[in-house]
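FW: tagging you since you asked about this chain on Friday. Here's the raw sequence from the shared folder, copied in full. Didn't touch anything.
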Amino acid sequence: MGRRKGSIGIALVTVAMLAATSACGGAGSSKAGADDGKAGGKAGASASPSPTKPAGPPMLLDTITPQTGTTVGVAMPISVIFTNPVAAKARATVEKHMKVSASQPVAGAWHWMGDRRADWRPKTYWPSGTKVKIDADLKGVSNGNGRYGVHGYTHTFTIGDDVRADVSVTGHTMKVTRNGKLVRTLSINAGSAQYPTWDGTMAVIDKQEKVHMTSCSVGISCDKGSPNFYDLTLPWDIHLTQSGTYVHYSTGDPNPGSGSARGSHGCVHLSMSDAKWFYGQVKQGDPVTVTGSPRGKAAADNGYAAFNLSWSQWLAGSAAGEQTTAQL
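HL: got it, structure written out here
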C-alpha cells in the first residue's frame, strides 16, 4: 500500500495533504518532493525589487524544507520550491544567494530538479548533531524570466541521531541502526514481481499514524472485482516516495517474512508490533535503503531520494558547483 501526492509546490497545508486518499504505488515516479513548511523566516521591509533592477513581478518561494526548528535525519536535503520557473542562466546567481551555514564544515551542493525545485545535499550524510541554517537572501535577485526577489527567507534545523533502516528484499529483513549500532532486525515483505519496491535510498518524507489507501488512486485498479483492488485505512505509515511507497502494517500481510513470502504493491510490510515500534524510531530525513529489488532506484525528486545520485551526477545538476558550508 502507499500514497501518491501531487506537486510539492501546490501542497501547502500539511494536515490536508496527509488526510488525502492514498495507495501503494504501482506507477512510475511522481515528480517533486514533499513539503512540510511554507517558506518563512525573515521578510524584507520593501515590497519592491532593488531600484537598480527593472520593475517586474516578484520572485517568491513556495516552500522550504525542513521546517524551521525541526530535528531531521542525516539524509535530509534542503529543498527549496519557487513559485515560478527559474531560468538556467540565473541559477548560479540564485544558488549563491541561498547560503547554507552549519555548526561544522560540510561539503555539499545545490541540484535543480527541473526549473522550480532546487535541493542542497551534503556530499555524504550530515554528521549527527549538526545545526544548519539556510539563508535565502533573494531580495533583488533575478529569476532570469523577468521576476526579482522581494524577500529573504531563513530556516534553521538540527540533524538528530543517525537512524538508518536497511531493507533486504530477498532476505525479507530490515535492519535498524542508531548511531552505528544495530538496534533490531525486523521481518518484512516488499513488493511483488508485478509491483516491485523501489531500490536505493529514500529519506523519510513524513509519517502518519493512519493513512487511507486505495488502489485506484495510484492507477493499480479501480475495479472492485480485481484481485489487486483495495480500499483500506492502515496504521503506522512511514512515507518514502511521492509515487506511493511506505513502510507500514498491512491487514493483507499481517505476518511478513520469508515464511509468508507475500508480495506487496510496492510498499514494505511489517507486522503490527514492528510497524508501531519502527514508527516510534524514525523521523523525517532518516534514510531507508532498499536492496535486492528489480525495479531500480527511485528518482532523486521522487520524494527525498537525493542520495540515489552519485556525487558527480548531483554536481551535474548544479549551476554553482560544490561548496563548503559557512560557519554557523
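FW: Helices lie at 14-18, 91-96, 272-281, 311-316.
HL: agreed, and The first strand starts at residue 58 and ends at 59.
FW: great, closing this out.
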